[in-house]
Amino acid sequence: MTEKWTDFPATALTWEKRNGQLRVPVPELTEGIAASLSCYPSKAKDMRAIALPTERVPDWQRKAIQKLQQLLERYRALRVYLDICVQCGACSDKCHFYLGTADPNNMPVARANLLRKVYRFYFRPVEKILGGEAEAFNEKVLREWYTYFYQCSECRRCSVFCPYGIDTAEITMAAREIMAEIGVATKYVTEVVAKVYERGNNLGIPAPAWIDNCQFLEEELKNETGKDIRLPVDEVGAEVLLVAPSADNFANTDTMMGYAKLFYALGISWTTSTYASEGGNFGLFLNYRNLKRVNKRIIDAAKQLKVKRIIWGECGHAWRAAIYTNTLNGPMDFLDPPYPIHICQFTAEMIQRGALKIDKTANDDLIVTYHDPCNAARAGSLIEEPRAMIRATCNKFVEMPRNTIREKTFCCGAGGGLLTDELMPIRMAGGKPRAEACRSTGATYLATPCAICKAQLPEVMKHWKVPVKVGGVHDLLSRALIL
Q: Read out DSSP for 323-348?
């Protein structure tokens, strides 16, 4: 079966040929459900662990506006984004959460206006005189921020279609940083960051459990291949430090074993670190200080273990944060090369060089399609390498419709720190565009190099009754690799 493009069947989504935009049927949700759902608030112990106020500060309004002023001075783009929007609505039907909930506040332009009206009130008073929407930062506005800026996955799809290039994710990130500064944040995001500082990874897995599970996977590989394929931990002097999502070692184990087979086949020494056993960086979903601090753990681990290079595993937002490493905690001049490498980039290069023996027929029982993680594709330029891997390991590859892949990819519906049970109705609604795109391919296997997508998409496909298995790209390599 040769690779081909598919179009949406008329029964799934309607294709408007005039401008190529998707019109997605709104799922059956109770009216106003988006406004009624919000994340659980953070716990004091987690806020303390990540150096944030344990409760809302007494003078929260003044400090919030002070923080907004700091962000406007530090990030010129933020002020530009707040000033230049002409309310054209080009972004409105590009957001999966608006398509799913039909809540006007989930239109990217409307969500951005929640911050924009506060900006105008304090920093553009002339617009109040001219009739522009402006409002003081009060309890009502704070409640709107907390609800809707945590119904944004920071996927940046809207920015692709904005004629002015406004990056709404930057506005969401600014609003979250302001809220964090005054002691308002979500349980899920703050708990995850606190676990990294306590245990080294997002899942809170202690070092002995990490080591034990690596040994268990070694036994699994021995039973499968008859070969002694190692998953080394804390080995000083290895060539590569692999910082994969901790979920790969405990949930997406086929992906983790795929990494191990890859390095074994290439004869490359590698290791993981119990100090930094996580590629993901939830500081990206909270504030700059924690983004920098979490990232620094990886650099410190690489120096302690004296590795030659760092390779990030299959995770979209991990890769987006990794790209900032030289800016956050560089220079990485002790590595060769002195910049971040994604595992898909590395593997695709090895395949191109002919360094791996592959039997594509090993995956002939699968019809494979591919989901571009938002942060990998739009924020990380990781587009062609995973596809090169799939083509090299599979004979049956079917792309989703052209306007839902690469930089125009739909979000899985749970990125940006939204992979939490209390938002399940929002997550399922937001995931429908991706579910229908996948359904249109007839695929039996949906490959994606992102741990959050691997957690969200099986639930989405089950909810929308799309019969497809979700897994990693290196899972396919693992099946096809000849050792």
A: HTHHHHH---TTSSSSS-EEHHHHHH
Q: Which amino acid is at 143?
A: R
Backbone angles phi, psi at 418, to 5 degrees: -105, 5
Sequence-separated (6 or more) residues with CB below 8 Å from residue 287: 52, 176, 177, 180, 181
Whether residue 343 contacts residue 311, with contact meaning beta carbons closer than 8 Å, is answered with yes
Report the pLDDT value the prediction gives residue 118, as an integer from 0 to 100: 96
- Distance in angstroms (rounded) separating the CA atoms of residues 201 and 203: 6
CATH topology of domain 200-351: Uracil-DNA Glycosylase, subunit E (3.40.470)
- Biggest CA-to-CA distance, the chain: 77
- What residues have CB less than 8 Å from 220, skipping those under 6 apart? 253, 257
Please say whether the beta carbons of 371 and 457 come within 8 A.
yes
| Overall residue count recorded for the chain in this entry | 483
Enumerate the domain spans of the chain. 14-27+356-480, 53-184, 200-351
Mean residue pLDDT of the chain comes to 92
Q: What is the pTM of this model?
A: 0.91
| Amino acid at site 443 | A
Q: Looking at the predicted structure, is the pLDDT value of residue 384 above 50?
A: yes
Q: Which two tokens stand for residue 59?
A: 């003078």
Taking each continuous run of H as one helix and of E as one strand, the counts in the chain are 23, 9
Rounded Cα gap, residues 438 and 245, in angstroms: 24
CATH 3.30.70 fits 53-184, yes or no: no
pLDDT digits (tens, 9 = 90+) for 184-218: 999 999 999 999 999 999 999 999 999 999 999 99
- Residue 15's pLDDT band, with cuts at 50, 70 and 90, is very low
